[in-house]
What does this fold into?
Amino acid sequence: MSTSRRLTAGAFAGAVALVASACNTTATAEGADWQPTKAIEMIAPANTGGGWDTLARTSARVLEEADLIDRPMRVVNKPGAGGAIGWAYIANNAADPHKLFVTSPPILLVPLSGESDHDHTDFTPIARLATDAMVYMVAENSPFTSFEQVIDALLDDPTSLSVAGGSAPGSMDHVALAGAAHAAGVDAAQLNYVAFDGGGEATTALLGGHVDLAVSGVAETTGLIDGGKVRVLAVSSPEPRETLPDVPTLQQLGIDFTFDIWRGVMGPSGLTPEQVAYYEGMYAEMVETSQWQASVEQFGWVDDYLGSADFGAFLDEKREEFADILSQVGLR
Amino acid sequence: METLDHVLYGFGVALQPENLLFVLIGVLVGTIIGILPGLGPMSAIALMIPIAFGMDPTPAIIMLAGVYYGAIFGGSTSSILLNAPGVAGTVATSFDGYPMARNGEAGKALAIAAISSFVGGTIGIVGLMLIAPGLSGIAVSFGPAEYFALMVLGLTAVVTLAGKNVTKGLIAAVFGVIVALVGIDGQTATLRFTFGLSELYEGIEFLIVALGLFALAEVFVMIARRGAGSEFRRVTSLRLSRKEVTAIAPPTLRGSVLGFFVGVLPGAGATVASFLSYSMEKRIARDGDTFGKGNIKGVAAPESANNAACVGSFVPLLTLGVPGSGTTAILLGALLVLNVQPGPLMLSDRPEVFWGVVASMYIGTLVLLLLNLPLIPLFAKVLKTPRAMLIPLVVVFCVVGVYGLSFSTFDLWLLLGFGVIGFAMRANGFPAAPMILGLILGGLMERSLRQALQISGGDWTVFATKPIPAALLALAVLSLLPAVLATVRRRRGKDVVELVEQRRG
It folds into this structure.
C-alpha cells in the first residue's frame, strides 16, 4: 500500500513540477533556478517536544541525512499563543525565502476562534507531508462497546455523556467530536465537552472514570490502547488504520465525517514560483526516502503528500468545513 | 521476590559502563543548569534532546531523567543564596533558605537542602520500585473534583503563610489567582486579562513572576538601601548538630512521602508538592511562627517533597504514558522519538528501559549528594561577592533565564513589572508567599472546579458525595478552624474591653 502511495506521490510531484515550470515562462526545464543562499530557518511555533517540534526536527534531520538540501536547516522554536506568535514572526518576514514553518489544523482553527492576527491565507503553502487520525474511546470497563451506542445515547440526550478532550473548545479535539456528532444528527451545541490541559490529562480523566468518553490523537494514546486500558470505538480517518484493524472508521459506521490531523510545511507570503517549486520538489523527494518512511511508521503517521497548489486548495476547503462546524456548536 | 529480581536486573542495566557514564553526564548537566537561576529542568532537557536523539533509548532516557532530577536537586542553591529560584519547585525553599543565608547559615541551608533532597529522591525511588504498577490506579483516581478539593486544602495555607496581617496576605493571594487566570480560558476559549496582547494568550509563565517577585525585588531593596544593612553575616559551618538532625528528620520523611504521592498525580507535580509540604510543616510545627525567618524545617520540607515528587511524576509517565507536567511532556516526546512507547505494557515490553531508568535514578541521586556536599563551601562563597558585582550578576541571570523560556523580549518587561510589584509589595508589608501560592494553586483550582461542574452538569453536590473531595474539603475546613477561633476569641476579648471602657466612660 505504501509503495503505491509513494508512486502516486512521486508522479504527483513530477506533475506539479511540470505545471510549475509550464506556468512560468522564465523557469528552466529543471525548475531549479532558485537555490537557498544561506541557512534555512524552520520555525516550530511551539515548544520543544510537541507535535510541531517533532515534525520540524524530523524533517530537517531527514533532509540533511538524505542530502536533499545544500544549506543547513535550523529548527527554531517560537512558542506562544497556540502558534500565533510563530505565525506573526513569519508574517513579519514576508518574501523571505529562508524561513519556513511546520503546520497542522490549528493554522485554520486558531484564526477561526479569533486568536491570531494572521490566518492561512497570509502564508504560502509548500507541501502537506503526513496525517494522523483522532480516536473516540472509552475506558475498558465502560458499558459502551460500539460507537453506535454512544451516538444513540447522545441522540436521546446530547448532554448525557461527558466527553474529555485535550484542548479548548473550538480546537482540534472539540471539532473532531462536534463534527462527528453533527454528522450523526446530534445537536453538537448541546454536547458536554470538558476541556483538559493536553491529551494526557484527558485520557487520565477517562481512565479514572471521571468522564464517559475521550477524543484524542492516535499517536498520543497508542500505549494505552496496546495496554488494553481503553477501548477505541471509532477512528476519524477516511480509511481504517493499519495499527487498529478492528476499529471502524466513522464513514463505515454511516457517519459522513472525517477528521485528519494533517501536517505540512508553509512559508511566508510573497515567495516567487521558483522558490516554491524548489521547496516543493525537495519535500516531494524527502517523503520518498527510507529515513522519512521509518519516521512516519515510528510516529504512527500516514503518508499524505500534497504539493503547494493542492495543499492550498485543501486548506481553503478545510477552512470552510471547520467554520461550518464551529457555527454548529455556536462558537462562531 | 519478583520485585527484588527486577531491581537487581535494573541495577545490572544501570551499572553498565555506558549507562553509568550517561547517568553522570545527565545529573552533572542537570544540577549545573538547575543551579543557574532561571534555568530549570525544561531548558535543561530541551538542551539535551538533540544529543539524546542520536543515542540508544536506554542510555538516552537515563541521561534525560538524570537531567530532570539533577535540575530539581540543584535548583535549591540559587533559591537559598540569591533568593532567585532556578526551578519552580524550589520557590518554597527560598522562604526559609534565603533568610538562613542572610543569618550566616548559607552552608547549613545548602547542606539541609542536599540531604533532604537525597532522602526525598531515595524514598521516591523505593516507592517507584515497589509499587509503581499499582500506583497508576492512584494517578487516575484524581479527577477534577478531587483536584479542586486538593487545591482548596492547599490554598488554606494562605492563612499560615500570610504572617502578621491576614488581610494583606489574602489580598496578595487573590492577586496571585488573578495573575493565574491571564490568557486563553481552557473551558470556553475566551481571552481573559490579555489586553489585546497576543504574548499573554498562553498566560504568564510562573518562573517570570517568581524571579521578579523574589530575585528582582530583592535587588531593588538592595539598591534602595544603597548596600546599608543588607550585608550577609559571616558564613558559619555547614555541619548539622544532632539536635538539628532530629529536628529535620520528621519533616523530611513526611515531605518525602507526601511529595511522592502528589508527584504521582498527573495534575499536580513538584511545585504543588513543595508548597503543600511547606505549609503542612509550618502548621504542625511547634515553632511554626519562625517559619519564613530561617527555620531549618522550612528548607527540609519543600526540598524533600519536590525531589520525591519529581520521581513520583515518572509513575504516570512510564506506566500510563501520561505526562504530569511540562517537563515530563517533553520527556514523553523524547521517549516517542526514541521509539519507546510508555504505557501499561512498558513494564513487560521494555523492562530494560523501565528498571534500568529506575535503578539509574538511585545511582544518580547518590552521585548528586556526593557531588553537591563538597561544593557547598564553594557555592556559599558567592555571598562574599561584593554587592556591586552580585547585583548585576543576579539581574543577568534573571534576564537570561526568562529570555530562555520563549525568546521573547515581552517576557523581560513582565519580569521588570513583577520586580517593581514585588518591591512595592515588600515596601507596604504585603507578603509574597501567599501570592505565589495563589498563582500556583489558583489556576488549577479554578480549572478543576469548572471541569467538575461541567461534568456534573452544574451539580455542586459532587464535592460532598465523592469520598476523596469530601474528605479533603473537610480537612480544609478543619485546618482553618484554629485561625478562625483565635480571631473570634480576640474579637470577643476586644468587645469585652470596649464594653468595660464604655461603662467606665
Remarks:
- Residues 2-23 of chain A form the longest helix (22 residues).
- Chain A touches chain B through 57 residues (CB under 8 Å).
- DSSP finds eleven helices and ten strands in chain A.
